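Reopening this ticket.

The earlier resolution said the output was attached, but the attachment link was broken on my side. Pasting everything inline this time so it's all in one place.
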Amino acid sequence: MGLTRLPLVLAVDAGNSKTDVAIVAADGSVLGTARGGGFQPHVVGADAAVGALALIVADAVAAAGLDPAPGVPFVEHVSACLANADLPTEERDLELAVNARGWGRSTQIANDTFALLRAGVDEPRGVAVVCGAGINCAGMLPDGRTARFAAVGRISGDWGGGYALAEEALWWAARAEDGRGGPTALATELPRYFGLSSMYDLIEALHLEHIAPSRKHELTPLLFKTAEAGDSVARAIVIRQAEEIVALACVALKRLDLLGERADVILGGGVLAARHPLLMDAVAEGITARAPKAAIEVVTAPPVLGAALLGLDRTGAGPEVRSRLRAHYAAGEPK
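Inline output:
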């Protein structure tokens, strides 16, 4: 493979539950893609996580019809937006692990929230809030300035996302049944979902793992349904989630001196992508009150597009290249 014929970008969007990889040519066309499982370096370590990622990259390389020699770069630039790359030290460890693979001549590691943001904006300017299994926010400007949060859980001040919402619903439902809290329909709706007759039965089933703890997230849509039916406790949980989203977005806008400027606020992740009316109305109202010029949008483009666009930004690709790439994903590339 001649040096001048290297594809321009290897784009990676690695989330907690799935990973997408794309190889982008110098003209913005997509040569090959692949999808695999989640990326969890905080559980298995950076080297092992990148080792699993390498298998997905290999699938994308094969789909692109490339046959690189071991250790020889097959792209100009690697743009990897990775879940759990929350702290600078984590980014450095992951960059070392990616560089050791020899995929590209240069590498940029970023948190996966930046991929969501870049997928939703025409230029790298604005903020994004992702509310899926967890919650995070990132902002950036064309001059390279960014705004971000540690986003490692409650110890860094975070609250929300599907898992936290389910936990909160269970907490209030348990207290409603045993008398420590006020009444809520959640006390009957949550156990009914699993075919049980009481919160006590559900608590026992979860504690003894007769119901896998990982299934708690299935209760989040039920929380929203109960809230939209008018239950005051469920509504309060949803409104609290909206307030957290608003706080993240507006603090990031302020850090970037965009609070009073026209700026994009991109929303994504499973909880926000579901567009529950109560949540979305409260988010829009809260952001507009503090940032009246903000343009709020739920992103529909796949985040791997954002990772690729960040790579094109870094390599100085022109607008026609970015447009061709966007057109590819608008035509229906799997998300």
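Reporter confirms the inline version is readable. The radius of gyration is 21 Å. Residues 232-255 form the longest helix (24 residues).
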